[in-house]
Amino acid sequence: MLLVRRGRPPGAGLWSVPGGRVEPGESDAEAVAREVLEETGLTVAVGSLAGVVDRPGPGGAVYEIRDYLAEVTGGALAAGDDAADARWFDPGELPRLPLSPGLLDALAGWALIDRPPGSNATG
To answer: Which domain of life does the UniProt lineage start with (predicted)?
Structure first.
């Protein structure tokens, strides 16, 4: 699984899936491809919707986050933009990482990873 370590708030120092804001006039797929390229140096073919979560934002705002599956089609892995690091991880490594709040639960809920037996991780 491809993750980036956030270099700036919110979430500085935490690992998460690449992502960011959809710019005006952009489709979700265009935004996913742009954000992955900016944060990881990789080009991707964007696939189906993996899942949706709501997360609290500043001033009581609630952000709807839509995560998509994607396949790498080119580029070279290198942290960029607001990412301090970018790496591939085996799903079994995720519970030991400092993850963005709710990420592990979301990935398990979308059946993208198995919840490790006896895990109480909420990352």
So the answer is: Bacteria
- For the record, the structure tokens of 74 come out as 């080119």
CA 26 from centroid of its chain's CA atoms: 19
pLDDT digits (tens, 9 = 90+) for 20-32: 999 999 999 999 9
Tokens standing for residue 12: 């500085």
This prediction has a pTM of 0.89
Beta strands across the sheet bearing 83-88: 15-16, 2-6, 83-88
Query: Selecting from 3.40.30.10, 3.90.79.10, 3.80.10.10, 3.30.420.40, what CATH number does the domain 2-91 have?
Result: 3.90.79.10
CA-CA distances (angstroms) from residue 95 to 10, 26, 76, 91?
Answer: 20, 33, 26, 8
Buried b (16+ CB within 10 A) or exposed e, 16-29: bbbbeeeeeeeeee
pLDDT (tens digit, 9 = 90+) per residue, 49-98?
999 999 888 899 999 999 999 999 999 999 998 899 999 999 999 999 99
